[in-house]
Amino acid sequence: MQKEVVLSGIRPTGFLHLGNYFGAMRNYVRMQNEYNCYFFVADWHSLTTHPDTKELQNSVHRVLAENIACGLDPEKVSLYVQSDVPEIAELYLYINMLAYKGELEKVPTFKDKVRLQPENVNAGLLTYPVLMAADILIHRAVKVPVGKDQEQHLEMARNFAERFNHRYGEVFPQPKAFNFSHDLVKIMSLDGNGKMSKSENQMATIYLSDDDELIRKKIMKAKTDSGPTEDNSQKPDYIENIFTLMSLVSEEDTLKKFEEDYNKCSIRYGDMKKQLAEDMAKFVAPIREKATAIQNDKTYLKKVMSKGAAKARESASATIKIVRESMGIKY
Ligand code: TYM
Predict the structure, then answer these.
(1) pTM of the predicted model, to two decimals?
(2) Which residues contact 43 (CB under 8 A, 6 or more apart)?
(3) Domain with CATH 1.10.240.10 in the chain
(4) CA of residue 206 to ligand 1 center, whole Å
(5) Which of 102, 140, 164, 170 is the most buried (most CB within 10 A)?
(6) Alpha helical stretches, state H, the chain
(7) What pLDDT, on a 0 to 100 scale, did the predictor assign at position 51?
(8) Strand order in the sheet with 143-145
(9) Residue nearest to atom 27 of ligand 1 (CA)
(10) What whole-number distance in Å separates Cα of residue 2 and Cα of residue 5?
C-alpha cells in the first residue's frame, strides 16, 4: 500500500522554541517512519516579514540543524529548502488566480501582520496562505502536522484545492491539520500574553538554543498568581500552560503531585517552577548541543539540502505535470 503523504514547514525567522517543538517537530519525528514525509524550511515565507536577508543563510542552517537534532532523519524524509523547489512558485501562481482579495484580507494572521508592520503591507503578506497552500498541494499531501495557530491556513488550503478541482478536474486531495492527540497544540508565552513566538518577548520564550541558566531564569519568571482559593477550581490559561509544559518534559508522578496540590489549594508555584526548570533544562540540553554540532558541519548540511531538494522536486514536478495537463497548459 502507498504511504500517505505528509508535509510541513517552518519559517527561518529566528531560533526555534518550545512551541515549534511541541506544536510541530515532535510530530514530524513520530511520523517519519509511517508516512512519506516532506519537511521544509519556508525561506520565501520569511521574506514577507523579514526582507533583510543578512541572517537568512545562518537561520536556514539553524532550522535544518534543529530539525535533525530533534530526531528527524534526512535519510527517511525529504528535508529541503522551499526556494530549492521552483515548482512551488509555479503552483503558487496558478492558485493566486483562484484566490480572492476579499477572502485574503479577512485572514486573522494577515490582519495581525498589518497591525505589526503597517509600513510594509506587501502583496506577499496578503497571499501568504496561497503560498502555503502551494507548499502543501505540490506534494498532494493529506496530513499536515502543525500547531493550532495554522488551523485557518489549512482551511484555506482545502478551499483552494476544492476550487481547483471544481474548475479543472480532481487533482488535489483535501489536506488536514494533524496532531497525534485530538487537539492541535498551542504553547503560550510564559508571560501569559498570547502564543510563544520566535520574535515577541524573548524572555517569555524558551528557545531550543537556550542554556540551562537562561532556561531556569525564564521559567522562574513565568507568570503565576497567589494560587487557587477553592478546591478543584479551573486553571487560568497561564497556569494551565505551566502544567502543559510539565506534562511534556517531566515524569508523570511529578505532574500528578502538582495537579493534586493545585486541586487541594496547597500548590507552591515556586517549587513547581523549580522542578519544571530542572526538567526543561535536561530536555533542551541534548537538542541544543547536537544542533550546534550539526550547524557547524556545512558539508553535511549541503548534502542534506541537495538530497532533500532532489526528492522534493521529483514529487513536485510530477504534480506540476498533472496540473498543467488538467488546466490545458499543453501546447
Ligand atoms: P512557523 O514557522 O511560525 O511555526 C512552525 C510550526 O510551529 C508551530 N508553532 C506552535 N505550535 C504550538 N504553540 C506555539 N506557540 C507555536 N508557535 C509555532 C506552528 O503551528 C508550525 O506548525 N506558515 C507556517 C510555515 C509554513 C507551513 C507551510 C506549515 C509555510 N508553509 C505549509 C505547514 C505547511 C509558519 O509560519 O510556521
Answers:
(1) 0.96
(2) 11, 12, 56, 60, 81, 82, 83
(3) 210-291
(4) 16
(5) 164
(6) 18-20, 26-31, 43-46, 56-69, 87-96, 101-105, 108-116, 123-126, 128-137, 151-168, 212-220, 237-249, 252-263, 269-296, 298-327
(7) 96
(8) 78-81, 36-41, 5-10, 143-145, 176-178
(9) 9
(10) 9
Residue 294 contacts residue 69 (beta carbons within 8 Å): yes
Give the separation between CA 199 and CA 264, rounded to whole angstroms: 37
**pLDDT tens track of the chain, all 331 residues?**
789 999 999 999 989 999 999 999 999 999 999 999 999 999 999 999 999 999 999 999 999 999 999 999 999 999 999 999 999 999 999 999 999 999 999 999 999 999 999 999 999 999 999 999 999 999 999 999 999 999 999 999 999 999 999 999 999 999 999 998 878 999 999 998 899 988 778 999 999 999 999 999 999 999 999 999 999 999 999 999 999 999 999 999 999 999 999 999 999 999 999 999 999 999 999 999 999 999 999 999 999 999 999 999 999 999 999 999 999 999 9
Q: How far is the CA of 205 from the centre of ligand 1 (A)?
A: 15
Neighbours of 161 (CB within 10 A): 22
User: May I ask the CATH architecture of the domain 210-291?
Assistant: Orthogonal Bundle (1.10)
CATH number of 5-184+298-327: 3.40.50.620
H/E stretch holding 38: strand 36-41
In the reported structure, the alpha carbon of residue 235 is separated from the centroid of ligand 1 by a whole-number distance in angstroms of: 26
For ligand 1, pick from 7, 10, 189 the residue to mutate: most ligand atoms within 8 Å of CB.
10
- Ranges for all domains in the chain classified under CATH 3.40.50.620: 5-184+298-327
- Residue 6: CA count within 13 A, CB half-sphere: 24
| Beta-bridge mates of residue 39 | 8, 79
| Residue 196 Cα: closest atom of ligand 1 | 15
Contact 11, 42 (CB under 8 A): yes
| CB of 244 shorter than 6 A to ligand 1 | no
Question: Grid cell 525564564 — which residue?
Answer: 218
